[in-house]
């Protein structure tokens, strides 16, 4: 009986593992299909401990030369700031000083607000950094969704657990919640206005022509 | 004898400059090398060289001209979209004297501020042709505060005490409103001369051509305009700068790709031509 139970548990584990791998594959394939953009809204905890309303626009060109742009709308103090991430470089634009700081991707801090937003556009990378597991399903206004839990493989990611809702009918993230080790919410963000868009590298790299360019290594 | 020693010293400095320049470029260490030629009527002529190279998290900067050299060290902490903190020191030594300066600047969320302080025992332009023709103590504070998504308050304070011991101060308060274009209004005082400030900045076309114009008018008069035209996707721009001031002074600058030319008149004519080689990394 014990043996049977053990086999059943192992089998269940394998099925669950395959399922999460399959979901990850479906999400990645869907997001890789064509350029897209989405608005991300919610609340994030800033490094000083305060909680702020947040709104970003995420634009992604998938493919071999993937390019992502995160444009800040809220908090108001950050409106106009944006980050452009390619395989090689990270551009960080600061509105207040009209500067573009360019750093190699490997050394740049992309997280900034406690969550690496580009991971949401690159599920494979997310799966590399976080151990994902399927928690179940949930109905949302957008339709049925998978509830996926995750724990970081590396403590330096800055959170202890995450939960993502993935839309089943059009596999893409709907919402993400990050918590610290005391279960306090660090970020609670939802996706809206998801749409396929004819984005080009020129559009994503758009910056004020007179911005001071600072290269750092 | 003394004069001979002076010439030998100057020749030695020439060799040091040339060798340092060659070493930096040959070793591939320099991240950028800028060679230039500066001339000022009637008889001032000097080659100039600027180099930057990485030293761990720091960037070493070197400036060389015929009769002076300068060394600087700078670094910064980056906080992604939240801001950054940069700081640096620089020292210059030449036949005319010496100078030191330091600066620290930070941007975090809605606040940006920078503080610069320096002292020079000679005119700063004797140590670096691109610097002002004033010596002594110089302290400057700049601050910006974002009142809201579209409104920014700016404050500038300056204090100078020249080599003759004469002190002067300056202050400027400005308010910028960003809509499609940015409008700036302000009031300032420069060494007891009052002026009003008006500024406009905006894109002129779909290609991103950008014009910025700032007028300070009153007892102190100065117009600064910059036209920037994007040339390609590689961050190359054509920049045209024009500055005119009364009492009469003017400068015209053109910058494209690796070239830069600056002509100016402030009682005498000068021309500075520069060419930059980049090797990646910090500029």
TrEMBL record, chain A:
<keyword id="KW-0732">Signal</keyword>
<dbReference type="InterPro" id="IPR033399">
    <property type="entry name" value="TP_0789-like"/>
</dbReference>
<protein>
    <submittedName>
        <fullName>Outer membrane lipoprotein-sorting protein</fullName>
    </submittedName>
</protein>
<keyword id="KW-0449">Lipoprotein</keyword>
<feature type="domain" description="Uncharacterized protein TP-0789">
    <location>
        <begin position="68"/>
        <end position="196"/>
    </location>
</feature>
<feature type="signal peptide">
    <location>
        <begin position="1"/>
        <end position="21"/>
    </location>
</feature>
<dbReference type="Pfam" id="PF17131">
    <property type="entry name" value="LolA_like"/>
</dbReference>
<dbReference type="InterPro" id="IPR029046">
    <property type="entry name" value="LolA/LolB/LppX"/>
</dbReference>
From TrEMBL, chain B:
<protein>
    <submittedName>
        <fullName>Uncharacterized protein</fullName>
    </submittedName>
</protein>
């Amino acid at each position: 009986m014990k043996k049977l139970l053990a086999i059943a548990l192992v089998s269940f584990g394998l099925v669950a593992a395959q399922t999460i791998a399959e979901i990850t594959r479906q999400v990645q394939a869907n997001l890789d299909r064509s350029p897209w953009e989405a608005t991300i809204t919610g609340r994030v905890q800033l490094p000083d401990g305060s909680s702020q309303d947040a709104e970003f626009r995420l634009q992604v060109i998938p493919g071999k030369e993937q390019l992502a742009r995160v444009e800040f709308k809220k908090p108001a103090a950050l409106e106009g700031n944006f980050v452009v991430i390619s395989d090689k470089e990270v551009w960080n634009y600061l509105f207040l000083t009209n500067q573009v700081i360019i750093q190699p991707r490997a050394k740049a801090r992309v997280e900034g607000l406690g969550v690496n937003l580009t991971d949401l556009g690159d599920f494979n990378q997310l799966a590399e950094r976080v151990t994902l597991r399927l928690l179940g399903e949930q109905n949302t206004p957008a339709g049925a969704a998978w509830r996926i839990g995750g724990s970081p493989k590396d403590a330096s990611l800055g959170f202890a657990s995450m939960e993502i809702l993935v839309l089943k009918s059009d596999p893409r993230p709907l919402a993400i919640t990050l918590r610290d080790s005391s279960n306090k919410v660090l970020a609670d963000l939802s996706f809206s206005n998801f749409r396929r868009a004819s984005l080009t590298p020129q559009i994503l790299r758009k910056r004020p022509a007179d911005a001071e360019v600072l290269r750092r290594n | 004898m003394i004069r001979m020693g002076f010439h030998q010293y100057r020749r030695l400095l020439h060799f040091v400059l040339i060798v340092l320049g060659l070493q930096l470029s040959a070793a591939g260490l320099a991240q950028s090398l800028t060679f230039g030629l500066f001339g000022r009527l009637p008889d001032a002529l000097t080659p100039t060289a600027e180099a930057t190279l990485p030293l761990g998290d720091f960037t070493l900067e070197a400036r060389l001209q015929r009769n002076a050299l300068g060394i600087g060290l700078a670094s910064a902490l980056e906080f992604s979209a939240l801001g950054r903190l940069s700081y640096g020191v620089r020292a210059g030594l030449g036949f005319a004297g010496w100078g030191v300066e330091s600066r620290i600047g930070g941007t975090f969320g809605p606040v940006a501020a920078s503080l610069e302080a320096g002292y020079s025992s000679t005119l700063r332009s004797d140590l670096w042709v691109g610097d002002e023709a004033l010596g002594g103590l110089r302290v400057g504070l700049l601050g910006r505060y974002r009142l809201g998504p579209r409104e920014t308050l700016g404050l500038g304070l300056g204090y100078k005490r020249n080599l003759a011991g004469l002190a002067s101060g300056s202050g400027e308060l400005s308010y910028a409103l960003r809509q499609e274009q940015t409008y700036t209004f302000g009031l300032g005082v420069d060494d007891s001369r009052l002026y009003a400030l008006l500024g406009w900045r905006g894109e002129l076309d779909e290609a991103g051509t950008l014009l910025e114009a700032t007028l300070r008018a009153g007892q102190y008069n100065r117009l600064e305009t910059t036209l920037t035209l994007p040339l390609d996707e590689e961050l190359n721009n054509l920049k045209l700068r024009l500055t005119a001031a009364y009492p009469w002074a003017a400068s015209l600058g053109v910058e494209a790709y690796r070239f830069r030319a600056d002509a100016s008149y402030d009682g005498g004519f000068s021309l500075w031509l520069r060419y930059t080689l980049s090797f990646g990394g910090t500029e």
